[in-house]
Amino acid sequence: MGVECGGASGPDLTHVLDVVLAAMADFPELLIDPPPQVMFTSFADSSINFSLRFWIPYRRQVDYVGAKSEAIIRIKKAFDAA
Fold first, then answer.
1. Collapsing DSSP states into helix, strand and coil, what is residue 80?
2. Inter-residue contact 48 to 6 (CB < 8 Å)
3. CA-based end-to-end distance of the chain
4. Which of 6, 2, 58, 8 has the alpha carbon at shortest distance from 29?
5. Quick one: which H or E segment has residue 49?
């Protein structure tokens, strides 16, 4: 599953990577093999965009949509706290 995000262009990208991965550390039903991945994908006007990839058991469409929503909530809270 992938979540596309944009982060402020000022912070150290290694810090962004650490914050996002920490936000996913206790994600419900997260599969650890392969582990979550953060890939920086592009520059925008005021952000550097990235994609978070992670894997969960997928039984129904709601599993996918719910996990994507939960990941976005967690990332936003983690950025606010950082």
1. helix
2. yes
3. 25
4. 58
5. strand 47-53
Which tens digits make up the pLDDT trace of 21-44? 999 999 999 998 999 999 999 988
Which pairing describes strands 2-8 and 47-53: parallel, antiparallel, or unpaired? antiparallel
CA pair distance 44, 71, nearest whole angstrom: 22
d(CA 29, CA 61): 15
Question: What amino acid is encoded at 70 in this protein?
Answer: E
The set of residues, in sequence order, having a beta carbon less than 8 Å from that of 21 and lying 6+ positions away, is 36, 38
DSSP result, 52-67: EE-----SSHHHHHHH
Q: Model pTM?
A: 0.85
CB atoms inside a 10 Å sphere around CB 67: 21
